[in-house]
Give the backbone structure.
Amino acid sequence: MSNDNKKKIEPWRIIIFIIAVAFILFMWIKKDIAKIYATMPQEQILPMIVTTIAVSLLKVGGLTVAILLIKWVVGKIVGKTDKTNVKKEKIQVKLFISAIAKFLLGVVLVGVLLFLPAGDFGYTNGWLLMGILFIPMFIAGIVMLFKNPDLLKKRLNAKERQKEQNLVIKLSGLMFIAGFIVAGLGYRFSWYMLPWWAVIVGAVLFLIAYILYAEVLRENTYLSRTIEVQENQKVIDTGLYGIVRHPMYSVTLLLFLSMPIVLGSLYAFGIFLMYPILISVRIKKEEEFLEKELTGYIEYTQKVKYRLIPFIW
């Protein structure tokens, strides 16, 4: 569902922005990476590189907040910023602080759930997952902050009003906790670990899913983490929405099922197989709601037959 009046972000602009950020980040940390390769043991290289990148991203985040604050203060002192822009920039700063706080909380929680059961920081698969999960997430958050702050605000809102859907979200949270802990324990006690070629395939699938996730966000500016119909919301049936009715759930299915593969844990993969069941329950309830509340959705379901996976369901 989207609104024609909302300005969409052109894909080439996002790609150029990501390349520019990646280049600046590389130039910033290339000396540190060279030093890591020269001085660190082989098993500590990847964790240290991921840590270095994460610290650099936090510096970028802090610099962004500082720039926004300076811009607002200077505009207020000089008097060239009208009240509307002042209010907008205040909201933008608050939104960024909220986003970065939740981002850091996510980093800490995932780190604890992976490395505490693992028993040490040498769990390379854990560092790999954190790198491909949080680095693109940070970049995407910065893009949304400046290009579409309303969408970022909606993505940060996870307060589900419906009791049944709230239960689905809680069960999904338990799935993540159990899966990450089991993966860490598998490393610690040398349970069966997937070969590295499978881990690499999982990482590639994860990154592909991230790209598709960005495309869904671009196509649908009304995406929300809660089930709701927003003002002037319309049905969209082009792009990925012309293939399946819930491309966001399709993408998260690929994202989440590739996570335990990146972690190298077959046992965690078994736990994450709960997700297709949980998401199918959510989709059925969501469609019942949309058929009642969103004009044109019934016709859309007749045009696009598949909910989640093409030719299957």
About this structure: Residues 202 and 261 are 5 Å apart (CA to CA).
